Fold this sequence. Notes:
Shape: globular
Bound molecules: (R)-mevalonate
Strand order of the largest sheet: 3-8-10-9
Number of domains: 4
Helix content: 40-55%
Number of strands: 10
Mean pLDDT: 96
CATH architecture of the largest domain: Alpha-Beta Complex
Amino acid sequence: MAPVVSGFSKLSKTDKIKWLAEHHFNNDQNAIDTLVTYWNSDHGLQQLHDEFTENTISNYYLPFSVAPNFLINDKRYTLPMTIEESSVVAAASKAAKFWQTRGGFKAEVLSTIKVGQVHFTFTGSPKKAQQFFSLIKPELFSSVSHITENMKKRGGGVIDIELRDKTTEIDNYYQLHCTFETVDAMGANFINSCLEQFAKTIQSEAKKHNDFSNTEKDIEIIMSILSNYVPQCLVKAHVSCSIKDLPHTKTLSSRQYAEKFVRAVRIAEIEPYRAVTHNKGIMNGIDAVVLATGNDFRAIEAGAHAYASRNGKYASLTHAEIKDDTFTFSIELPLALGTVGGLTSLHPLVKLALQLLERPNASKLMEITAVAGLAQNFAAINSLITTGIQQGHMKMHLMNILNQFKATEREKEQLVKYFKTNAVTHSEVVSQIEKLRG
Length: 438
Ligand code: MEV
């Protein structure tokens, strides 16, 4: 077991690696070399990455891929996607290509409101709390004017502050439930700064409030923090076409395909075990765009799954229907994204990703990202109800298996050719490699 270390964060990168090598890697030079191999030779670029987080010892690469041919609201996009899972980008590209000849994707932002809360306790009556809140509400707004000034110029700011009485659930517990418009910023810092100021203001105003007893004057702030549940920061997207323009196979007519597709989505609407995997597939597309554009995919994940449970049961984020020979497939989910601030102006690949998307504002990025999720889900269900997922997935996974076996370029070429007409399974790849190598 490694010893307790203090002052680790103050060690240089090289000394951190030395410590790791000594206590975790048996002083194995290979481990050190692996970490150092991933350092960038451009010192400035490396330093930039080192400083994104703490205790950085190396870089962890993820592929930066693109999916072309996305027609969204009649404009063509190439989507940047950062994801390690094989076949996701291919699936997105395939879905984009399919829908671009069928009117493309339509997307629309429904609302862009974000939420933050100050959680506090007050020992007086709910009536006293409400009277006090009504009195100090203007003061709460003005106390953050120094924080909101720039945001206001851009069209954002604090929308409203509400007092919520939660005393039936936890003794003396109240919230300031605050709503914000943060325009093109994800807005976490802005929201949290406002909330912390509200907390200070409510405490100092309570101290001065004559109607409060000494204990009532003592408001305890439990915490002040934004919420990643943003059901009012909502975007929807859909595709639609005549049933006859849907795929068909030897065993499925286009109509049967449409009906099977709708049933598959319906299953994810009523069966949580399926819904989780179904939505995971949606998040394959969404997270990949979110990550490539420098947004916080954990926040997006948390918000999306909470939204999927909003009716008390975890369910699909997408819906499909057939009406009068028209097939429609849609998605609706919250996406609190930003195109300014954070990594967007720091990470060179994030800047490039946003450039690739022609510098979208946050609303446009919400639309594009929702479309990525819908496209991914279309591709997954298409495979699931026809060939099954493994056929395409294993084809894409072939390269990973070949790399595991350190296949040479020549071996890769021969085996890719072989597996064009043969089913890819791990054992078959191994057996073909062995055969090639005699
Ligand atoms: C795999 O990453 C995602 C899928 O399982 C999604 C789905 O089942 O819909 C293929």
